[in-house]
Amino acid sequence: MKENGIIVRKYDSEKDFIGVEKVERRCEVGPSGKMSLFTDMLGDPICRVRHSPASLMLVAEIGEEEEKEIVGLIRGCVKTVTCGKKLSRNGKNDSSSNSNQHHHKTLPIYTKVAYVLGLRVSPSHRRLGIGQKLISEIENWFREMGAEYSYMATDKDNEASVKLFTEKCGYTKFRTPSILVQPVFAHRVKISKRVKIFQLTPSDAEILYRHRFSTIEFFPRDIDSVLNNKLSLGTFVAVLTDSDSDVLDVNQFLSTPPESWAVLSVWNCKEVFTLEVRGAPKIRRGLAKTTRLMDRAFPWLRIPSIPEVFKPFGLHFLYGIGGEGSKSAKLTKSLCGYAHNLAKENGCGVVATEIASCEPVKVGIPHWKSLSCPEDLWCIKRFGEDYSDGSVGDWTKSKPGLSIFVDPREF
C-alpha cells in the first residue's frame, strides 16, 4: 500500500535488516537521566512471532528509489485460543466419579485471535499517521487469516500507545495481567524437603493442561506445539509427598489428584532475545555489584543480590502456572524456586511470568516490585461484522476470569 509517499509492505530479511535495526535503535533511546530497558533480538527481527502458527512483519518505507528509508514496522501473529466455555451435552450423564465429573462438564469455546506487537515508528516521522497505517494493513492480513479478534499489550502509562489503539483504531481496554519479575541470585534457592517435584513429558504435560486449563482465557489450541518447542525447557508438577518415585503417572494424577498441587512450564527466552538496563548511575551499579560479591562470598546467608542487569542478560519465562488446593500457592513458590535454580544454571539474569491479577496462586510467586509491572494493559478489537455472537457472545464485553494463559511464544 502506498499513501502520501509512504509504502507499507512485507518485511524482506535480505534487504530490510539494516533499516529495521536502525528503527529499533532510534525507538529505544531512553529518557535522559533515567534508567531504560533495551532489547536485543540477536539479529532476528521476527524472533517474537517466529514460533507462532502464522505470523507477519510489515515495514513502512518513505522516499524515492535510491533514497528509500524504513521509518516504521509492526509484527503480528494469528492463532486459535479459548475465549469462553460451555457445558458439554452429556455432562450430566457422565458416568465417571464425582471428582472427575467436575472437570469434564465444561468445554472450551475457541476463536481465532490476532496479536499485534512490536509497533515502531522513528521519532523523526511520528504524527504522520504511519503507526495507524501499519495497524490498518496488518489488520487486513488478520482478517484474511480468519481472525475474529485482535489484541495488543502495552504499559498502561504509555499514553501515546493507548491513545493510538483505543481512540484511532477501535480497540477497547480488556485485561490487566501482572508481569512479575524475580532476579536470579548467585545462590541457589532452597526447596522444602516436604515438596516433591516431577518433570512431565510433553505428551503428559499436554494431557494435564487440556484437562485442567483448556477453558482458561487465551489457552492456545495448539498447546502441543508450545510444549514440544525446543525453547520449552519442561513442565514441572509439585506435590506434598514422601514418595521416592521420580515419575508421575498423569492419568492416575488426574483421576485421583492430591489435595494440593501446582504446575508450571519454563520457556527459554534467552535464546530469542536479551535485555539490558541502561542509564543507571554509578552508585546504583556499585551497590548492585556489592550485593553480588557478598552473595558469592557468603552463599549460606542467601543475600538477595541484584544480578548484572547493566549488561545484556537473558531470562526464562514461566507459563502455564496454576494449581489446586489449600497448599497450591506454597507449592507454586517451590516450583518458582526450582525454576530460579534452572535459570541460574543457564546463566540468566531474571525469571519472569505474566498472570491474571486475581490468579489464586499469585501470592506464591516470588518477585521484586521494583522490577515488576502490576498492570500490563491488554486492549482488544472485534472484527465483528461477519461473525455471529455464538456461544460466548462478544468476547470484548466479557468479564475477566480468575486466570489467563499467556503464550510464551509472544512474550
SSE blueprint and pairings:
Elements: E1 2-3, E2 6-10, H1 13-27, E3 36-40, E4 54-62, E5 69-87, H2 98-104, E6 106-121, H3 130-144, E7 149-155, H4 159-168, E8 172-175, E9 178-183, E10 195-200, H5 202-212, H6 223-228, E11 232-240, H7 250-255, E12 261-268, E13 274-278, H8 282-297, E14 315-324, H9 328-345, E15 350-355, E16 376-382
Parallel strand pairs: 6-7, 14-15
Antiparallel strand pairs: 1-2, 2-4, 3-13, 4-5, 5-6, 7-16, 8-16, 9-15, 10-11, 11-12, 12-14
Family: Belongs to the acetyltransferase family.
GO molecular function: acyltransferase activity, transferring groups other than amino-acyl groups
Pfam families: Acetyltransf_1
Task: Quickly list its features.
single chain; 411 residues; alpha+beta; Aminopeptidase; 2 domains; 8-stranded mixed sheet; acyltransferase; GNAT_dom; transferase
- Structural category is alpha+beta
Give me the strand/helix succession.
EEHEEEHEHEHEEEHHEHEEHEHEE
| CATH fold descriptor of the largest domain | Aminopeptidase
Mean pLDDT: 88
The total count of strands amounts to 16
Oligomeric state of shown chains: single chain
> What's the overall geometry?
globular
- Strands of the widest sheet, in order across it, are 1-2-4-5-6-7-16-8
- Tell me the name of the CATH class of the largest domain: Alpha Beta
Instruction: Kindly report how far apart the N and C termini lie.
Output: 29 Å
Strand content: 25-35%
Largest sheet: 8 strands, mixed
- Helix proportion range: 25-40%
Runs in which pLDDT lies below 50 for 5 or more consecutive residues are: 92-103
Total individual domains? 2
Quickly give the CATH architecture of the largest domain. Answer: 3-Layer(aba) Sandwich
